[in-house]
């Protein structure tokens, strides 16, 4: 009886902890997002231009000026203005882009899939190449292979992505002609893809337009690799250190003594125990890819959020810049906190 | 004679029974230096940084031209004896501009470090030392800043204020202090329970005095490691802002901005973009190597 009772309380405690975990997660997500909006709000207010003059022009009389000023709520206390700003955000009103003359929100949703496509291929490369490199490096710790991999990781960390990007564009596109140039498609294919997800690789695969698919692939290879370099470096570095933590432990020795093959010891025992930490690292890497896309997209004229932000920037379109910041920021913050939360929930030792 | 004097100096430094606080401090510094010096890669990083700092300080003496001296008839010349790294689209000597560019990058990194360390220490130590409500509020704010995308936020900040080095430094500093604060808090939580802190408190030392004289010095090693590693990112972000035209403004020689102009002449004149980028890679590589070495010395727990 006591045992049954005990297990029930245990389960209740565990459930409660689980529930509290998610409540905490939602609270910290909400607070952080609130912080993000506070920052974009302040940034939108400190710009040197008078927003009223921008609307009514230099020669407007005082009456018009004051009317517009009131319509913009600029005379209200700052906290009220922030409330109005939040209300507008909730209804998806971020203003109109000077660049496209469209509502910024619809622009963002049109440009985001391109960034998502790039970052997703980048993270697939990061996991596909980074994890085996990290495991290999940890298993051969201190040997020449390990030294070589660590050097690659270090260079991957230190290389300025925009520099490697323009050099790669010069070499592989201009000089060697191995890949297609900037943009997502060759000019002749523009407009031939029916937008469904706005991710060209998926859209063309769905409709079976394989020649366009191949063309899109040849366009995405270079920017995705570039963006992938960082995640390869980051993921393999973390994998290496997680594996190094596992390999000297007793259960590994036990597995070896049992006569398991080295492969089984490494992948089925040691590697499996790093998976929780690894998942959180992959999520973090994915978040930073969304951000890292800005410079890569500028170089490769890749029509994602990054390019949208930099183009708006040159048009002094602060609302569009802040809208993009908010979008990338929200994705980044959510992934960041999610990874933190997953780690806490999945690793029983962490509390 | 010289040999014996050297050994006595060394013995004085590494003695187990230092006669003064000064000797103990020098001794532990010397031990840290010895173990750092064992790592060839961190020595490489340190020497690269020292050479760069030397070139940056004495830039006018080690460069053959003025950084903005134009010679349009010599535009886009490939590397030669006269122009080691070639010339750019206005006939300016790229070697000279790369050297002057190190002034910009290194001073941005230095200024950011000088801003970020005191702020991070102050927030982190206050939160860790006083605990309770103060801790919760300060750490919540820190976490919010920690969760932000740095480059994007720096971009938005610089756009809202105005492009330029000052705004770039401000933007980078705003997004960089939070890891230092986290670290300082974690260290403070451990240190505040130690006996010497209790002793100081019994002697009537004020909280402020305890924080700055007793706790801050203990936080410094791990903070220095963290900041050194982060400087590699700072240099890259600053150059990224310059590349986008938001950092240093022309005609100031800055690596990111130079790269960005080099982009237009890529096909025929590879050298315009190559050398500033190489300098940037070298600087961030050196900072990463030095940071890794320092971490091995001061924080052997982490790999």
Brief write-up:
The complex is a heterodimer of chains A (351) and B (303). Chain A is mainly α and 351 residues long.
Structure description:
The complex is a heterodimer of chains A (351) and B (303). In chain A, helix 1 runs antiparallel to helix 13, helix 6 (144-158) crosses helix 9 and helix 9 crosses helix 11. Chain A is globular, with a radius of gyration of 25 Å. Chain A has one domain (103-350): Orthogonal Bundle (MetI-like fold). By secondary structure, chain A is mainly alpha-helical. The longest helix of chain A is centred in the first third of the chain and has 44 residues, at 2-45. Chain A is built from 13 helices and no strands. Chain B is mainly alpha-helical and 303 residues long. Helix content of chain B is 73%, strand content 0%. Chain B has helices at 2-14, 21-37, 40-57, 59-62, 94-130, 132-146, 150-160, 165-174, 177-191, 195-202, 207-243, 255-262, 271-298. In chain B, helix 3 packs across helix 13, helix 7 packs across helix 8 (165-174) and helix 10 (195-202) crosses helix 11. The longest helix of chain B has 37 residues, at 94-130. Chains A and B meet through helix 1, helix 6, helix 7, helix 9 and helix 11 of A and helix 6, helix 7, helix 11, helix 12 and helix 13 of B.
